[in-house]
């Protein structure tokens, strides 16, 4: 199963992120891919909002990892692998230890190292379209990934007013 949607604006991308945030559970891993400026951080702002994060979400490009407390006492951990040059550097930030924990993990440039993909994940790929439009494509791996994809597909299509690009 896959799903694809069109987002016409930054605000809609944030709403789509919030729709995903509402179906995320402790331990879930969401990989975000797509060019610079495609909307990965914008989408994460929506995820954080839905999880009740009170702090402003900013890009983790330079920090590599930013952490936020969620309303239910959990943690949202926002990674950005853009600046890493080698998969070995993932060990330096305990990437696998962290994503296997109880926090919700959102990883920008999350498919950068194909040899270092988690077993279970939802992947949201962003692509630039005409003007401000962005295409979002959802795929997944693993048992929880597949379950999350099914839930996310329903939630995001509803948030898009049923407007699928194709599904
Ligand atoms: N439909 C849209 N969805 C998301 N962002 C949009 C859209 N249209 C325009 N934008 C603009 O594009 C930019 C997206 O920036 P954002 O930081 O989310 O990208 P990113 O994918 O995280 O990039 P990077 O790889 O540099 O971290 C913002 O300035 C946002 O206002
Ligand atoms: Mg970003």
Description:
The termini are close together. This protein has helices at about 10-20, 40-50, 90, 95-100, 145-160, and strands spanning about 5, 30-35, 65-70, 75-80, 105-110, 120-130, 135-140, 165. It has an 8-stranded mixed sheet. The chain contains 5 helices and 8 strands. The chain is globular and about 40 Å long. The chain is an alpha/beta fold and about 170 residues long. The model has no long low-confidence stretch (mean pLDDT about 95). It has one domain (about 5-160): Rossmann fold (3-Layer(aba) Sandwich). The protein is about 30% helix and about 25% strand. Helix 1 packs across helix 2 and helix 1 crosses helix 5. The relative contact order is 0.26. Magnesium ion binds near residues 40, 41, 59 and 108.
Most strands sheet? 8 strands, mixed
Q: What distance lies between the first and last C-alpha atoms, to the nearest angstrom?
A: 8 Å
Oligomer: single chain
* Corresponding CATH superfamily: P-loop containing nucleotide triphosphate hydrolases
| Top CATH class | Alpha Beta
Stretches with pLDDT under 50, minimum 5 residues: none
- What proportion of the residues is helical, as a percent range? 25-40%
The proportion of residues in beta strands is 25-35%
How many E-type strands?
8
TL;DR?
This protein has 167 residues and is of the alpha/beta class. The protein has helices at 10-21, 40-50, 89-92, 95-99, 143-159, and strands spanning 3-7, 29-33, 65-69, 75-80, 104-108, 121-128, 134-141, 164-166.
């Amino acid at each position: 199963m896959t799903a694809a949607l069109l987002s016409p604006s930054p605000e809609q991308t944030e709403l789509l992120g919030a729709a995903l945030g509402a179906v995320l559970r402790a331990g879930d891993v969401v990989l975000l891919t797509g060019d610079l400026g495609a909307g990965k951080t914008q989408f994460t702002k929506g995820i954080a909002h839905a999880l009740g994060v009170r702090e402003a979400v900013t890009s983790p490009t330079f920090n590599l990892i930013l952490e936020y407390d969620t309303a239910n006492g959990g943690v949202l951990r926002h990674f950005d692998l853009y600046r890493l040059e080698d998969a070995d550097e993932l060990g330096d930030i305990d990437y696998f230890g962290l994503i296997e924990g109880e926090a919700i993990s959102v990883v920008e440039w999350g498919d950068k190292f194909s040899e270092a993909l988690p077993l279970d994940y939802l992947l949201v790929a962003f692509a630039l379209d005409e003007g401000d439009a962005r295409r979002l494509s959802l795929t997944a791996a693993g048992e929880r990934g597949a379950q999350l994809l099914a839930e996310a597909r329903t939630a995001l299509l509803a948030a898009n007013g049923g407007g699928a690009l194709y599904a």
